[in-house]
Amino acid sequence: MLDLICLDADDTLWHNMRFFAAAEEALLAMLAPFADAGIAREAMAAAELRNLAHYGYGAKSFTLSMIEAALDLGGDALPLSAIREILAAGKTLLAHPVELFDGIEDTLDQLAARARLVLVTKGDLLHQETKLAASGLGSRFAGIEIVSDKTPDTFRRLFARYDARPERCVMAGDSMRSDVLPALAAGAWAVFIPQAGAWAHEAAAPPEDRARFATLDRLADLPAWIDRIA
Amino acid sequence: MLDLICLDADDTLWHNMRFFAAAEEALLAMLAPFADAGIAREAMAAAELRNLAHYGYGAKSFTLSMIEAALDLGGDALPLSAIREILAAGKTLLAHPVELFDGIEDTLDQLAARARLVLVTKGDLLHQETKLAASGLGSRFAGIEIVSDKTPDTFRRLFARYDARPERCVMAGDSMRSDVLPALAAGAWAVFIPQAGAWAHEAAAPPEDRARFATLDRLADLPAWIDRIA
């Protein structure tokens, strides 16, 4: 029935946002003398959004945006120690342990029995490779695609590369904006598996046409859903 | 005769080092109150090397290492304006114009008549994609491979992905360390096209076994060299 099961990685296979959130909390604490947490959070979100076109996604971009937000809010009163602490927080972020979601290996085995698995993730090339290696999950995937962004064209090219017909592909992940909508636009099925604490940038209205769309509580529910649509 | 002609991008198809060198010159000027140019250059090289395992290659890593080097040398006397200037220099680096080497389109056409062309480049995913798009050269390549590092395994996997036998592949680029040696180790031919001002990190002793190795002055000499080995 399916040619390809495409899976997001961060916050779909393993925890991710909690580490970015921890780095941001450290930033807010550093900036407490200059701005309350709400203002600081807004300055950080603005820096990230402004820098996306320059830096793209990932922990290095996040680190550079933290520095920019700190300079914006602290002005000339910002202590240099804050810059040092931000660099350290960025390196901690790049080195965080990979904590798999419960039962993920079993779920991947079940999915792999149904179709070829492809990991589709955006972010820093080296960081994503490092996390995948640390996860021990690499051998379960027929392909690893680390991309600069997830657009309909990203999925069209990916399906073509694997000789897969879009209507025989499914993409599952925690981002409505990056996983669900572009996969649907490319003609595939898409499954939304929301996570608490997601980055606001990744939010979007759900699709109007829900024929090939579902929301599931956990990735562990995906094999049974695939059996139902088959 | 050949299955695949693999080409490096930065300083093989287009200018690159001159933009990193300009950013470094700006850094040295900022740090002039704290250290002479030689010391500052060494601090920057040390920061880059120390950070490679964390950050990988590319302009964002370079920016973060510039900040670290400035903090190392300036200590608590470093003005915050230096951090702002480094962030700006990093963004300039990410947005530099793509300046093709002379005659590169004609050379690629000649090479494409001999085998499939694959671009093999390391650095920031988004930055390399952006440069390739700006170059207008993308359609000449059968494949684009943006990798976190160039190791013998990188080339082995790449040749397998394109169903190419290593002894029927050639890799050409300006780095002895990243283009020539790993491609030879993977069983391919390799062509070294040195450029003035190359990063010391990319230097290495030439291979002892030169049966499948050549040094050429310009990429434009590659088609004729391929005809000679055929």
UniProtKB/TrEMBL annotation, chains A, B:
Superkingdom of the organism of origin: Bacteria
| Family matches, as InterPro entries | HAD-like_sf, HAD_sf, PGP-like_dom2, S-2-haloacid_dehalogenase
UniProt keywords, alphabetically: Hydrolase
An example molecular function term from Gene Ontology annotations: hydrolase activity
Q: What is this protein called?
A: HAD family hydrolase
